[in-house]
Design goal:
The complex is a heterodimer of chains A (about 350) and B (about 350). Chain A has three helices and 24 strands. Chain A is mainly beta and about 350 residues long. In chain A, the strands form six sheets. In chain A, strands 1-2-3-6-5 form a five-stranded antiparallel beta sheet, with no helix packed on it. A four-stranded antiparallel beta sheet of chain A has the order 9-11-14-13, with no helix packed on it. In chain A, strands 10-16-15-12 form a four-stranded mixed beta sheet, with no helix packed on it. Chain A is elongated. In chain B, the strands form six sheets. In chain B, strands 11, 12, 13, 14, 15 and 19 form a six-stranded mixed beta sheet that branches. In chain B, strands 1-10-4-3-2 form a five-stranded antiparallel beta sheet, with no helix packed on it. A five-stranded antiparallel beta sheet of chain B has the order 16-17-18-20-24, with no helix packed on it. In chain B, a hairpin with a 2-residue loop joins strand 14 (about 185-190) and strand 15. The chains are: A mainly beta (about 350), B mainly beta (about 350). At the A-B interface, strand 4, helix 1, strand 13, strand 14 and helix 2 of A face helix 1, strand 9, strand 11, strand 14 and strand 15 of B. Strand 23 of chain A pairs antiparallel with strand 15 (about 195-200) of chain B.
Chain lengths: ~350, ~350
């Protein structure tokens, strides 16, 4: 059954028998139909415009892309892309270049849905962060939109004054595939010792002080709606951390064989949330990992019961702590001091034993 | 190259190679596509000023200017036509579109439904879906391609991960051969007085010093560095030679090299300070900056700031005398303009 609805049309009737209408079939893709044609007309007789709400711009707009189709007495135009809510679409038909235009406009109404999307969580979770903190992960409850996002992200000092350019603003914007997680690097020029921005305007974060990461509600989600509310994370700044993380210092709590209890690995300091989730594994054991306790605990639940014997925890050396230090390699290598050079192995292993 | 429909998930940085071949970085697919545009008829640059190019593109795509993002611009050095990598929509389901701006300033869509193309998947591309064991949700790691450039027989790709800090710079021979070709290096910044760190490359331009191909690269922490391409070998660790410190509040966006009156210049667009013109004549002789630069100053190669070139979002060389720019004006309106090289 093909149902055709007349949605909205108005026409300046040039020739009484010709009408221009927007109709939508059950595929819900509006189409322009010119009917009552007594002879074939060129496709160019019908042009459709997506108005930009600016008269000057609208006068020089190129016509919208779409596909034409003719039937006896009729000409159809099907837009190439789905129509957008709130945009005024204007179909203009001229039977001949000198003929009076017949115009039919169409607009999908804006959705009046209430904003629902919020900042669900920001990592690191702790409320004391190192002065040389490298990044935040901002998790949203629903997919977001990209483009000029940094206008909505603010770092405020104790007096509520905005810190100038604290973040690495890159046009590519570091989103995950679902656009629910944004990675926000602190401008490395404000962390690295000896570079010009740090020398001149100082670090973005200063030890002993309090800062607030603020995300304003003006940021639009993937559906074009503002955030439900602004978000604030207030934290104190501790000393810089230049120590590479060392898995030998991690405290492993081992479950008993025959159970599916969690293996718990406690870190003496918080690790990068995303990397701790991705870069730690138990060799040859399937299961699910989680990072908890302000990123100081890695928990692993096997999909089958633990087997007694020796197991290996494998950690990629490129895992980072909150300041970007890797295993065996601090974020900054002091070339004048003897430091532990880079470990060439891509992973380090820690052995633990599951007992009966 | 094979003929068929080129499926893109995203269209990030773009750049031209030889004979009208356009390279399109597809960050979402972790791949680079080389497309034969067949736009190979030699053309000359015409003065251009298209106001509201974003509105015109939105009109063409049946959208609003607010929902159209222009992610990169490249001028075909043969035909002098301008190409734009555009995203229709701002969300995860946005559609990438390639636009060509006709001589009269009208944008048109370059159809990728039936084109000659080849693809290079980036080595160690993150796999969608499953990451090892223990993490069954989709892998949120992604490597954003921050810039691409073509030199002689190689495509150079700078990438930045959304998880680990540090970037890779890859050189992939073109024509693309097998999967996992190319080499990747880690870039270090060794000129912070005594500290050495990983340093993501923000933007770069291939450039010849004497007869040797080099890269001029701007790091995210502001220095401008230079290194010979011959250093890009598998697993290498490269320390660029810092040839200029660009100063604070500089966010390098794009750069081009050109010659004027027999001298070489580098033009660097940047989001706060107008545009910087740097004479590169002394690159060969210039000493590496090994000490921190103080007092808000400049060090290394001298540069001048061209104040009148404000709001430049994108920059490419149009011909030997002119640049093509995408300029942001009041209220976010974008114009496409040709400007005489300073």
């Amino acid at each position: 059954m093909i149902r055709i609805f007349l949605i909205f049309a108005w026409a300046i009737v040039a020739r009484a028998e010709i009408t221009v209408r927007w109709v939508t079939s059950e595929t819900n893709k509006p189409v322009v139909v010119v009917s009552g044609l007594s002879q074939r007309v060129a496709h160019e007789a019908l042009l459709v415009y997506a108005d930009q709400g600016d008269l000057k711009a609208d006068m020089s707009l190129p016509p919208m892309l779409g596909r034409y189709r003719t039937e006896p007495g009729r000409l159809y135009f099907e837009p190439r892309f789905p129509l957008e809510r709130g945009v005024n679409y204007r179909a203009v038909f001229r039977a001949s270049p000198k003929a009076l235009a017949i115009i039919a406009s169409f607009k999908l109404p804006l959705e009046s849905a209430e904003p629902t999307t919020v900042v669900a969580h920001v990592y690191p979770s702790a409320d004391v962060l190192p002065e040389n903190l490298l990044k935040f992960y901002v998790h949203f409850s629903a997919p977001m939109s990209r483009g000029r996002i940094y206008e909505h992200i603010h770092l405020l000092d104790e007096r509520g004054k905005e810190v100038e350019l604290p973040f690495l603003e890159i046009d590519e914007e570091l989103w995950d595939g679902a656009m629910k997680r944004l990675t926000l690097f602190i401008d490395p020029g404000r962390i690295k010792r000896g570079v010009q921005p740090l020398e001149e305007i100082g670090p973005a974060l200063e030890e002993g002080k309090q800062f607030t990461l603020m995300i304003d509600e003006g940021w639009r989600d993937g559906a074009g709606r503002a955030l439900k509310e602004s978000f604030r994370k207030t934290f104190k700044v501790g000393p810089p951390d230049r120590e590479p993380p060392d898995p030998a210092q991690w405290k492993i709590t081992v479950p008993r064989a025959g159970t599916r209890e969690a293996l718990r690995v406690a870190f003496p300091k918080a690790m990068d949330h995303a990397l701790a989730l991705r870069m730690i594994r138990v060799a040859n054991v399937e299961g699910a990992a989680a990072v908890e306790d302000e990123e100081k605990l890695w928990k692993f639940v096997p999909s089958t019961e633990w087997r007694a014997g020796s197991h290996k925890l494998q950690v990629q050396t490129t895992i980072e702590d909150l300041a970007g230090n890797n295993i065996g390699k601090p974020f900054e290598v002091d070339v004048f001091e003897t430091v532990q050079r880079r470990i060439t192995n891509a992973t380090v292993e820690v052995t633990f034993v599951i007992r009966e | 190259m094979k003929e068929g429909k080129l499926e893109l998930k995203s269209a990030g940085p773009i750049t031209f190679g030889p004979e009208g071949i356009l390279f399109i970085a597809d960050t979402k697919s972790a791949a680079i596509a080389a497309v034969a545009t067949d736009d190979t008829k030699a053309g000359s640059a015409k003065p251009t000023k298209v106001e509201g190019i974003n509105q015109k593109i939105a009109g063409l795509l049946g959208s609003s200017a607010d929902q159209v993002l222009i992610d990169d611009m490249a001028v075909n050095p043969v035909s002098r036509n301008t190409y734009l990598a555009v995203s229709r929509g701002r969300g995860a389901d946005a559609t990438p579109v390639l636009i060509r701006v006709k001589a009269d300033g009208t944008p048109e869509v370059v159809s990728l439904d039936k084109v000659k193309f080849s693809r290079a998947e980036l080595p160690d591309a993150p796999t969608d879906g499953v990451v090892g064991q223990g993490n069954r949700q989709s892998n949120p790691r992604r490597e954003s391609i921050t810039d691409i450039g073509f030199l002689e027989d190689r495509l150079l790709i700078a990438g930045l991960s959304n998880e680990e800090f540090g970037s890779t710079l890859r050189a992939i021979p073109f024509p693309f051969k097998t999967v996992a070709n190319g080499t990747s290096v880690e870039i270090y910044h060794g000129a912070h007085g005594r500290f050495e760190t990983r340093s993501p490359v923000r933007t770069f331009v291939p450039f010849k010093v004497g007869n040797e191909p080099h890269l001029l690269a701007a790091y995210t922490c502001t220095p401008l560095v230079q290194f010979p391409l011959s250093q890009i070998k598998p697993g290498a660790k490269i320390k660029g030679k810092t040839i200029a410190e660009l100063g604070n509040r500089n966010r390098p966006l794009d750069m081009i090299v050109y010659q004027k009156d027999g001298k070489d210049y580098l033009l660097l667009a940047n989001n706060s300070r107008g545009i910087m013109k740097i004479s590169t004549d002394q690159i060969e002789q210039s000493a590496s900056i090994e000490e921190p630069v103080r007092d808000g100053g400049k060090k290394g190669l001298a540069y001048e700031t061209i104040e009148s070139w404000k709001g430049i979002d994108q920059l490419d060389r149009l011909d030997n005398q002119n640049a093509m720019v995408l300029r942001r004006g009041e209220g976010g309106a974008l114009s496409l303009e040709s400007l005489a090289l300073p």
